[in-house]
Structure formats: C-alpha cells, structure tokens
Design a protein that fits this description.
There is one protein chain. By secondary structure, the chain is of the alpha+beta class. It has a single domain (about 1-160), classed as Aminopeptidase (3-Layer(aba) Sandwich). It has helices at about 10-20, 25-30, 45-50, 100-115, 130-140; strands spanning about 1-5, 55-65, 65-80, 80-90, 120-125, 140-150, 155-160. A 7-stranded mixed beta sheet has the order 1-2-3-4-5-7-6, with helices on both faces. Strand 3 and strand 4 form a beta hairpin. Helix 1 packs across helix 3. It is globular.
Amino acid sequence: MITLARTVLEDASFIASCLVGKSKRFLLQCGYDDRLFTTPVTESQIRMHLASRKESIFISLFLDDTIVGSCELSCTSSGNKTVCTLMRFIIAENFRGQGIGSASLAKITDYVQNTLHANVFRLFVYAFNENAVSCYEKKGFKKIESYSRDDGNSVYRMEVKLTA
C-alpha cells in the first residue's frame, strides 16, 4: 500500500539515486534539468532545493516501509480558489511498470483534495512522455492547453477539477 510522508533531508540521497546516469531528456521530463540543477544532479543539490523552496510541499512516497518515489507540490490561492501544481514527480526505476506511479498519483490527488483543500490539481508534462500522459489521463486529468517551449518540445498543461 502506498503512503505519503513529508520529505526529510535524508530522502535527498534516494531522490539523487533516481537521477544517476539519466539522460538530459529524462532529467528534463522529471524537472531536474539545467533550469534549476547542474548535471550530474547530486544529493547536495537536492538538499539545497528542499531547503530553499519554503513555499513548496515535498512528499516522499512509500510502498510499505520502502521509499519508492517523491514529488513536489506548489499551491496558490486566490479568493476561494486553490490550485496545486504537481512537480518533480518521480518513481524509482525498479518500481516502474507495477502500477505504483498510478497508485501514488491517486494518493497525492486525495491529499491535495482532502488535506490541502485544492479546487484544481494541475501538472505540466512533455508530450513525448506518452506513458506519463496516459497515466494522468487514466486518473482523470484532462489536457487543457498545449504549447511549445523554446527548446522545441511540446508541453501539455493537464488538470483535474476537485471538489473540496
């Protein structure tokens, strides 16, 4: 069973281990690219990111007692509307293809809806990341917008409306 816990600095080594030896494309699609990080992405960089992003909520994902993934949430409120954005969602390679990403996304969505009381849960995903797009669609996310980045890649903004 998937459980969520606030990320602690000691989880940085796990996150960094998920990124070792990965291609620039992989790092780009996970949000660990050269806009915020230098390659190779190190535990030290992850620790600095965790410490510096006070406005973000960092979540570690566990299967029983084993950490299997992580994500970052950023929430903004305006009036009575809260929008949470899923960022840097990653599942360790040896746990992919087992439904863990999908189960984790369901748990994260429940947390965003019932703990953070968001009205909208959104994410941005590269169009070339077909497995992720399919997973998000199966969990109720809809493509709201598509745009091209200056690096030539197409990105979808996907959202699911939540009832608080």
